[in-house]
Amino acid sequence: MADFEYGPAEFMVAAFDTDRPSAGVVQAILDLVASGTVRLLDLVFVERHDDGSIDIIELEEIGDEIGMTDITLEGSGLAGDEDVQQIAELLEPGTTGAILVIEHLWAKELASRFFESGGVVLHSERIPAPVLNAVAAEAYEELETTES
């Protein structure tokens, strides 16, 4: 089997209407890391103030404040300056963005097997949870209507 050091990773951006993510968001990230589902490679916060000015905050600066002191970012810097600046421009004034680079540890072996057999992933797309739930609810309602 081809042994990859890293599995597939995802660059994810979440926007919050507060200056920090809630304790629940932080705990969800910590739980995923602790379970071995993901590895947090990089995490950067971007605050866009009401006057339009921007502050970039590294995890090292606020780890104590948000309860993430035990996290080591193995890919710190993967969210590069250009990426961070582009994302900052997308944020509404008075909001904060969290930029996460997460390695999908659950998919690491599958990626190795694809590579080993000459396979190539041609397309991968993340469907946001609200979209998937809305489509599934609609399909379920339609199924119930046709069965009645």
Report on the structure:
With 148 residues, the chain is α+β, with helices and mostly antiparallel strands. It has one domain. The chain has 5 helices and 4 strands, in the order βαββααβαα. Strands 1-4-2-3 form a 4-stranded antiparallel beta sheet, sandwiched between helices. The protein is globular and about 55 Å long. The mean pLDDT is 88.
Count of folded domains: 1
Q: Count the beta strands.
A: 4
How many H/I helices?
5
Low-confidence stretches: none
Give the structural class: alpha+beta
What's the overall geometry?
A: globular
What is the rounded Rg?
19 Å
Order of helices and strands: EHEEHHEHH
Distance between the termini: 51 Å
* Mean pLDDT over the residues: 88
Helix content: 25-40%
| Major sheet characteristics | 4 strands, antiparallel
Biggest sheet strand line-up: 1-4-2-3
Secondary structure: elements and pairs:
Elements: E1 9-16, H1 23-35, E2 38-48, E3 54-58, H2 59-66, H3 81-90, E4 95-104, H4 108-116, H5 129-147
Antiparallel strand pairs: 1-4, 2-3, 2-4
State the gist of this model.
This protein has 148 residues and is α+β, with helices and mostly antiparallel strands. It contains five helices and four strands; from the N terminus they run βαββααβαα.
